[in-house]
Amino acid sequence: MEFSLTDTLKIEKITERTIRPVRNMLGTLRLPGDKSISHRYAMLSAMAEGSSRFHNFSTGADCASSLSCMAQLGAKVTRSGDSVEVQGCAGTFTPPGAVLDCGNSGSTMRMLTGLLAAQAGAFTLEGDASLNRRPMERVRKPLLEMGASIHLKDGHAPVEIEGAKLHGIAYRTPVPSAQVKTALLFAGLQAEGTTTVSEAVRTRDHGELALRAFGAEVTRSSDSVSIEGGQPLTGIEATIPGDLSSAAFFLCAGALFPDSNLVFDQLGLNPTRATLLDVLNSLGARISVLNLEEKNGELVGTVQLTAPREGLGATTISGALAAQLIDELPVLAVIAPYTRQGIRIRDARELRVKESDRIALVAANLRAMGAEVEEFEDGLDVRGGQQLHGADIDSGGDHRIAMAFAVAALRATGECRIHGADAVAISFPEFFDLLDLVAER
Ligand code: S3P
């Protein structure tokens, strides 16, 4: 294996960061590659025949976990910064004889479980303490229906897979989850017959688009997606669009200051991911999209954000919107005190089983900053018109909590100290440097 996490990622180990208030946010950013797309390209290129080359691959530790698992399974992975080359295994992985370490990455563990369920041999997947607490039954159950042999410990990792012959099924996901949908499509690619996944809420469709980019035929109806087993994949060359969920922290921060002007070049604008732009627009921010083009089925464009002089209004996020905005909800919740009428979030129970209990941590940290917050089992009510003060923030080791509260700190009075700030390296190691670049003090 020529790939090494420490050689290539240079993750700074900073456990505490002090964030001071700013006047506004100005500048142009090109963000590292989308995490969801990078995971899928890492896995499918390893499965494919021939070599693949990626530019602007995610720099986060999560996608590095996917790459190192694929290298352990026999793919030849060569990385130089954000360029990655993968020599695929042409459909057959080699059981590594050691545990596959998924780190903090739920995407790696769930999607790899689908990819390996039909492969010959035994595979064990484990993660860090946070990942080992997260629910895995949601992926095991449908795979068992397909004929897989998978064991968990009380619904959690370690995930022990004994490769089996799979057959296609029709499955409706009880909890909207793109990770589960993708895992089933990856298993379906290797199953006999057709696998159909239907969902009540259309979750992100990067799995479907990536399969097509690598040459598989995937058919879609309004609420389902199907794949025929036994299709070969062929390596591709691709530039991965900037990660909209990383841009979310800057978009929300920019929306707080009337003189802000932020431009994001080559940002991923897949419609199943871009709901945040509509929400910010409905809160009063002005958003323009330019140079829209399609690359490997994914929409990419330039986004400009300016903020309203009168401040942000109010919004409610519930139902399908909550599922589509799941990764953006923490940062939306923390800007809510600075809106005029607040933000109400419901139907977001899934936030409790992410890298941390994001509902509890958002509520506790907002209260530490002096905010009034009402916590519900499936969401939060955060009143508008509140001025927050500096405080000690606990990231809980969760990258999105660390970044969300760095944003909250930008309009607080006094300084915030973010403890566990190094967690940002999970998805966005450059976060604090880019924040310094665009923050005007
Ligand atoms: C992801 C799907 C979402 C999201 C996660 C990435 C993906 O999780 O929260 O950060 O790449 O498919 P679920 O599908 O479990 O909701």
How is this structure best described in words?
It is built from 14 helices and 24 strands. By secondary structure, the chain is an alpha/beta fold. The strands form 6 sheets. A 5-stranded mixed sheet has the order 16-17-15-2-24. The chain has a 4-stranded mixed sheet with strand order 4-5-3-14, with helices on one face. A 4-stranded mixed sheet has the order 6-7-9-8. Helix 2 runs parallel beside helix 3 (61-72) and helix 2 (35-47) runs parallel beside helix 4 (106-116). The radius of gyration is 21 Å and the shape is globular. The N and C termini lie far apart (45 Å). The structure holds shikimate-3-phosphate (S3P). Shikimate-3-phosphate binds at residues 36, 107, 177-179, 182, 203-204, 326-327, 350. Shikimate-3-phosphate binds next to helix 6.
What attributes does this structure have?
single chain; 441 residues; alpha/beta; 5-stranded mixed sheet; 4-stranded mixed sheet; 14 helices; 24 strands; 30% helix; globular; disordered N terminus; binds shikimate-3-phosphate
